[in-house]
Design goal:
Layout lengths: L1 H32 L3 H20 L12 H19 L3 H9 L2 H6 L4 H28 L10 H26 L8 H12 L13 H8 L2 H13 L15 H28 L3 H15 L1
Helix pairs in contact: 1-6, 2-3, 2-6, 3-6, 3-7, 3-10, 4-7, 6-7, 7-10, 7-11, 10-11
Length: 293
């Protein structure tokens, strides 16, 4: 009994150590990423474009109401930015980490895949947070009528954290299926298609019933709904499915995505890493260098 208890405690401590190592790795990767001009431009490009679009909406109102159009659109953009930051960002790094031997080293480390996954969640949470700040800070100056109180702050933080945990592991798992970083553009394209029935740019209640079902199956709709529930007056919930913000359902669906991702991603990563060896990494690196020339 004592041996079993000790062994169990050892496994728990090993996982804690892997989580701590992942947090450290995630912070370092974020710091290095912000030293790359290309990465910084990518993080800021879309928020700046969104902010400019909202600027042109200044003075416009939702048809039939006196509610500012920019205030109506901004929460949906926040939800979409969280989803895109988590779902499309991590997948693009998997092929690179495979080619430079990062995944091979993680495989050789006890609970290395857990640490790797934690690092990715932290990195893309931090970079997405910067993108959101670049969008929200200027947008608040042109999008009036928004709810800004303690409830808003608590809900947005909860939605952001839950959104990152729900999307980054899924992105990592999907990225593990690609054989090269160029293929991740397909994931971005699919994400753009999924935004159509998500209610981000058009009320989901105005879509056909089958498209409403499709939209509700993915995080985009729920993250957009959560951001709207945090930032918009309760009276606007009438435009949503069921005439309410469905906060509990939102937490439940995103929580389910998070559980599936956290269980699935390490399994997929380990299976992919089993096919890797020093020779395959060297060959991949050679192909990359050849293309570079």
């Amino acid at each position: 009994m004592t041996t079993t208890t000790t062994s169990g405690a050892g496994r728990v401590e090993a996982r804690r150590a892997a989580v701590r190592a992942g947090l450290t790795r995630g912070w370092l990767e974020t710091k290095y990423s912000f030293m790359e001009a290309g990465d910084v431009i990518w993080y800021l490009a879309f928020p700046v474009i969104y902010a400019v679009v909202l600027l042109f909406m200044r003075g416009s109102t939702v048809p039939g109401t006196g509610f500012a159009l920019g205030a109506m659109v901004l929460p949906s953009l926040v939800g979409m930015s969280i989803a895109l930051g988590g779902l499309t960002g991590a997948a693009s790094t998997i092929a690179v980490d495979r080619e430079d031997g990062t995944l091979l080293r993680a495989k050789a480390t006890p609970n290395g895949m857990i640490g790797y996954l934690v690092g990715k969640i932290l990195m893309f949470a931090l970079t997405t947070a910067v993108s959101l700040l670049a969008l929200v800070i200027p947008a608040f100056t042109v999008a009036g009528d928004l709810r800004l109180d303690l409830r808003t702050a608590v809900l947005l933080i909860m939605i952001f954290v839950l959104g990152m945990v729900a999307t980054v592991p899924i992105s990592v798992a999907l990225g593990s299926l690609f054989t090269s970083s160029a293929q991740t553009g397909l994931l971005f394209l699919i994400s753009m298609l999924l935004i159509i029935p998500s209610g981000i740019f058009y009320p989901i209640t105005a879509l056909p019933g089958w498209l409403q079902v499709v939209g509700q199956a993915f995080p985009y709709y729920w993250l957009g709904l959560g951001a709207r529930s945090a930032m918009l007056p309760d009276s606007l919930a009438a435009a949503e499915i069921g005439g309410s913000w469905r906060t509990l359902e939102m937490i439940g669906v995103l929580g389910l995505w998070a559980v599936v991702g956290m269980v699935l991603a390490p399994i997929v990563l380990r299976r992919m890493a089993r096919r890797e060896s020093g020779s395959t990494v060297a060959a991949a690196r050679e192909r990359f260098m050849t293309k570079g020339y």
